[in-house]
Design a protein that fits this description.
Elements: E1 8-11, H1 14-20, E2 24-28, E3 32-37, H2 41-46, E4 54-59, E5 68-70, E6 76-82, E7 85-92, H3 96-129, H4 134-151, H5 162-175, H6 179-196, H7 198-203, H8 211-218, E8 223-228, H9 234-247, E9 256-260, H10 263-277, E10 284-286, H11 287-299, E11 304-305, H12 307-310, H13 312-327, H14 330-343, H15 356-365, H16 379-390, E12 396-397, E13 417-419, E14 424-429, H17 443-460, E15 463-468, H18 469-473, H19 477-487, H20 497-506, H21 509-527, H22 531-540, H23 544-568, E16 570-571, H24 573-585, E17 595-598, H25 606-617, E18 628-633, H26 648-651, H27 653-657, E19 661-665, E20 667-668, H28 673-683, E21 695-696, E22 705-709, H29 725-738, E23 749-754, H30 763-772, E24 777-782, H31 783-786, E25 791-796, H32 814-819, H33 829-839, E26 842-850, H34 857-864, H35 878-881, E27 896-900, E28 905-909, E29 918-919, E30 929-930, E31 937-940, E32 948-950, E33 959-964, E34 967-972, E35 986-988
Parallel strand pairs: 8-18, 8-19, 9-10, 9-17, 11-16, 14-15, 17-18, 20-21, 22-26, 23-24, 23-25, 25-26
Antiparallel strand pairs: 1-2, 2-3, 3-4, 5-6, 6-7, 12-13, 13-14, 27-28, 28-29, 30-31, 31-32, 33-34, 34-35
Length: 996
């Protein structure tokens, strides 16, 4: 480049000279640029605008970019910007651009090269020293963008010094980073750190950390989510990450916050850190101890924690006592009785179900009972029974009719209700205004049955009150009942409140309600609702009316609870989290932690997630968070919704916390590949569960989930000397241990697992089992309690349907459901995860115990969807094998279970007593029969017998072989002579062609 004079002058054009009254317009120096902002002689003489004359000077470094010339007929214009503010020099020489454009650019480039070099160097240094966080990237890209716009595109055809061109090439590359480039930059950093700290990762735990574990320790975005499957070593990552941060100099011990779900987990983490990192300076904290610490720091003293906060039973007792005190108030007592009588259960219409069996299943699962404790077959009957009871009218439910109308083929008629003191019967008919029935009911047969009952009462001159579903649907049922009772002069003597209350206490309902309210106190306080928010909760509830009624009972308890805390100067856990959150949000507490690590994140509730987010953001500087958030969780093991945990905070982590770096632990050290395949296939049927490819260190090529199918009443046999399915499993485990079929170190541990504790052996029985099997260590755990633990073998029990079935089909009380996280759309989503947890506790083998006549839908799925499970390890009876073929013909969803009566064996529906269908087995061998193999026939399921009998083609009833003068014939068992309903269908035996 040619040398330029140290100072150069750009002159005005002729018009500029005339206009400004000066020949010189701009002076270029080594340091900067100077221009004269004067009003000009022309305006000074004739104009009215007065501008103070000013000489303006800027250093080249102050200019945002090189000044630019632009053509004007009256002379070139020179524009420049300083810190975003624009300036313009008018009417320059027509040769100004030609003579000075390059010179200005060169001078600007020379004096701004250092800023360019500094930026490029800082970026390169940052990329080598730290993981490129999203917040850092955004700030970096903004700075790169600004610098790029200062230099480009004018520099592209400008002869500049080599060092400047080299820096510009780097800047241009940085400006052009795409997603792949950014990921590569991060990957480069991770690889460099893994190499640099290879020795640390090799020895921080008893076994070297896997590559994925190491990567999880190093990757450090603003938000980090580690998805760690069962047995993949997440605790090793927590320890390794803390150690890595300290060893790499990125953090001091007091800058790391470890949050654990509970005190026990926190203590275990402390022990692990002390052992592996040789320090006491990093302490894991629970959310509650964190809340206490924040409040104490702001208020200058530790708050007083309510005894109820850590003693759930004491809290339950207080709520129970408070509820009983409130019941002494007549108004409250009436509200309570109304709730138990009409709103205690979640009502569903029989018309909403596809089969009678499904409706019965709902009634069974939710244990629908009257105030006297009786099971009834509809909500209409429930209302009738409760009204009669509350009004002191003695009744019998489904008592036998006073006149014997039974016959060989038909049981005695049993009306719904019998008022024995008055000889009055009540029938509740499930029909709508247009005589329609639920879709699964044979309408014609039902109406004929109604007519038969009416004729029967007319014939025997007995009084029968008739009530209908459509009356119940309209809320008129009890009013119609009361009107009919009054018309018959039946004495109504409402029970004294004390008697009703005694009954409720006897049924345990007051205690049950108190426990529900005790749980709701915390959930309600955590929600932090105003009146508008509460109204939204009600309107969104599954049963808005029931939810409102329940809250009316809860509200005075909430008030007294808070008054009690205020009077004693105490706070509970909900206050603690809420108060700590407010102090952070209001800036009264600034987080000292630069690294926040949360364990078991899938168990977190929304209020706790809010606290974590506030801690992260309390370090804000320039609008960007300084703290790094690292959460470890497994959405496949999210099983605590009942306590407020929200799995969507894990599955939708990015939506809640912002851009996130996700890492996965893909190798499990616990269960073998067969258990893993079954468990993974099962839990991922729910498409919302995050995809994870978890590989087992222990690879096997045979099934290790074994199914034991056995009924309660099945006797011992030669092949199966034990009639107890649990003992069958333990015997099988003992044999495997004796034969050393599995690689086990020390005494084998066996977990007996079930959904509910009472389904497991009690302490006496457990001690007996440990004596009976001295080579095994046998322990009992509920599914929930087993989480985080492992055993060599697992026996899963309680795989049944009903009130205490698994999955639990009991409807969550609407008021509780309203304050819990939103229910997932996929059916039994959380229960499926719970089964996954149960399966993955075992290292070597899982035994699933089930009675197929009442088996959990999960067990049926394992069979029907061809999961890779072992079905032939144990002998299985015929009934257990063909359970699908012996469904109840009446309700269609129940399974026929073998029963032993006073005189003979028979089969009855698993929905008994709601479905009272019974049938005899094969008349030749006693085995169950099925209607599914051939249309119009029943076939014995015992292959060695295969006896076949026709089914009535008119009513679907069984046919029985009868004799007449004309020969043998098949007659319908529903034949009742002239009585209605009756079926007179017959087949000539000689003309009937049997299938097969």
């Amino acid at each position: 480049m040619s040398s330029k004079p140290s100072a150069q002058t750009i002159k005005h054009s002729w018009f500029g000279h005339f206009y400004r009254g000066k020949p010189n317009a701009v002076v270029l120096t080594e340091k900067g640029i100077t221009f004269y902002r004067a009003q000009g002689q022309f305006l000074a003489k004739f104009g009215s605008v007065k501008e103070p004359p000013a000489e303006v000077s800027f250093l080249w470094q102050q200019l945002d970019c090189p000044p630019k010339f632009s053509f004007s007929p009256l002379g070139y214009l020179l524009g420049l910007t300083v810190s975003g503010k624009a300036y313009q020099v008018l009417f320059l020489s027509y040769f100004a651009r030609k003579h000075f454009d390059n010179d200005i650019a060169q001078r600007w480039a020379t004096h701004n090269a250092q800023q360019l070099d500094n930026l490029v160097a800082r970026v390169e240094l940052t990329l080598s020293r730290e993981y490129l966080r999203q917040s850092r990237l955004e700030m970096m890209q903004a700075r790169i963008d600004r610098e790029y716009r200062r230099w480009f595109p004018w520099c592209e055809n400008m002869p500049l010094a080599n060092d400047i061109n080299a820096a510009l090439a780097k800047l241009q590359k940085m400006y052009s980073w795409n997603k792949a480039d950014i990921e590569q930059l991060r990957e480069n950093y991770v690889k460099a750190q893994l190499f640099k700290f290879a020795d640390f990762f090799e020895h921080v735990e008893s076994k070297p950390l896997t590559e994925m574990q190491q990567r999880a320790c190093v990757i450090d975005d603003n938000n980090n989510l580690l998805l760690a499957g069962a047995g993949t070593g997440k605790t090793s990552v927590m320890v390794g990450r803390a150690g890595y941060l300290i060893n790499s100099g990125q953090a001091q011990t007091d800058e790391i916050l470890l949050l654990a779900y509970g005190r026990k987990a926190a203590d275990e983490m402390d022990e692990r850190i002390k052992e592996k990192l040789d320090t006491d300076d990093i302490k894991a904290s629970t959310f509650h101890s964190l809340g206490l610490r924040i409040i104490a720091q702001v208020e200058g003293k530790s708050p007083s924690l309510s005894p109820w906060a850590e003693d759930e039973k004491a809290k339950d007792r207080w709520v129970q006592d408070t509820l009983e005190t409130l019941i002494e108030d007549e108004s409250y007592r009436k509200q309570l009785f109304e709730y138990f009588s009409q709103y205690y259960y979640v009502e569903k219409s029989p018309f909403d179900f596809d089969s009678q069996g499904e409706y019965f299943q709902y009634l069974n699962d939710n244990d629908i009972r009257t105030l006297k404790g009786e099971r009834v077959k509809s909500f209409g009957e429930l209302y009738i029974a409760n009204w009669l009871f509350s009004n002191g009218i003695e009744y019998q439910y489904e008592a036998k009719y006073e006149h014997d109308v039974s016959c060989v083929d038909f049981r005695q008629y049993q009306p719904d209700f019998f008022l024995s003191d008055y000889g009055v019967y009540i029938e509740y008919y499930g029909i709508d205004e247009d005589d329609s029935t639920a879709p699964y009911i044979d309408n014609q047969q039902y109406l004929e049955s109604m007519e038969w009952k009416r004729q029967l009462h007319k014939e025997h001159e007995t009084v029968c009150l008739e009530l209908f579903y459509y009356q119940h649907k309209k809320g008129q049922l009890t009013h119609q009942l009361e009107h009919a009772i009054q018309a018959l002069d039946i004495k109504v003597s409402p029970l004294p409140d004390e008697a009703i209350l005694a009954t409720l206490n006897e049924l345990g309902r007051v205690t049950e309600l108190a426990k529900l309210f005790s749980k709701l106190i915390g959930l309600y306080k955590s929600a932090c609702l105003d009146s508008k928010g509460l109204e939204t909760v009600f309107s969104n509830a599954a049963d808005a009316k029931q939810t409102r009624k329940a809250f009316e009972l809860l509200e005075p308890i909430l008030s007294r609870y808070q008054e009690q805390l205020s009077a004693s100067g105490d706070i509970d856990f909900e206050d603690m989290i809420g108060k700590a959150l407010r102090y952070i949000q209001q800036g009264q507490f600034l987080s000292p932690w630069r690294y926040i690590m949360v364990d078991e994140f899938q168990d977190i509730s929304e209020p706790r997630a809010r606290l974590v987010k506030a801690l992260r953001d309390s370090c804000l500087s320039g609008g960007k968070p300084k703290a790094s958030l690292f959460c470890v969780g497994d959405d496949w093991q999210a099983i605590y919704r009942f306590s407020g945990a929200d799995v969507s905070l894990t599955t939708l982590f990015t939506e809640y916390f912002g851009p996130t770096a996700k890492t996965y632990l893909d190798k499990t050290f616990r269960f073998n590949s067969s258990i893993g395949d079954v468990a993974t296939k099962f839990v991922t049927k729910n498409p919302v569960q995050l995809n994870k490819d978890i590989r087992s260190v222990s690879q096997v090529d045979y099934p290790t989930v074994s199914l034991i199918r056995r009924g309660e009443q099945e006797p011992a046999s030669k092949d199966e000397p034990s009639s107890n399915s649990l003992e069958q499993a333990l015997n099988a485990i003992s044999k495997r241990v004796e034969k050393v079929e599995d690689d086990i170190k020390g005494q084998p541990v066996v977990y007996l697992l079930a959904r509910f504790w009472f389904q497991l052996p009690d302490n006496v029985k457990l001690k007996q089992l440990n004596r009976q099997y001295p080579k095994l260590t046998i322990e009992c755990q509920s599914f929930h309690a087993s989480k985080g633990k492992e055993a060599d073998y697992v026996v899963i029990m309680g795989m049944q349907t009903g009130k205490h079935g698994f999955p639990s089909m009991k409807v969550t009380p609407p008021i509780l459901d309203a304050f819990l996280p939103k229910t997932e759309a996929f059916e039994f989503a959380e229960e499926r995860r719970l089964f996954y947890v149960a399966l993955t506790r075992a290292k070597h083998r899982v035994y699933v115990v089930a009675d197929m006549t009442d088996a959990s839908p999960f067990v049926i799925e394992l069979l029907k969807d061809n999961y890779a499970i072992e079905q032939d390890e144990f002998n299985t009876s015929l009934v257990q094998k063909i359970f699908e073929d012996i469904s109840c013909v009446r309700c269609t969803t129940g399974t026929l279970k073998p029963r032993v009566g006073s005189f003979k064996s028979f089969f009855s529906c698993s929905h008994f007593p709601l479905c009272d269908h019974k049938e005899e087995g094969c008349e030749l061998c006693g085995s169950p029969m099925t209607r599914k193999r051939f249309t119009g026939f029943k076939v014995c399921l015992n292959d060695s017998c295969s006896h076949t009998a026709p089914v009535c083609s008119v009513c679907g009833g069984d046919m029985t072989l009868r004799q007449s003068a004309r020969g043998d014939f098949w007659g319908c068992k529903n034949y009742r002579g002239k009585s209605i309903p009756s079926c007179s269908n017959t087949f000539n035996k000689a003309k009937l062609r049997l299938p097969g």
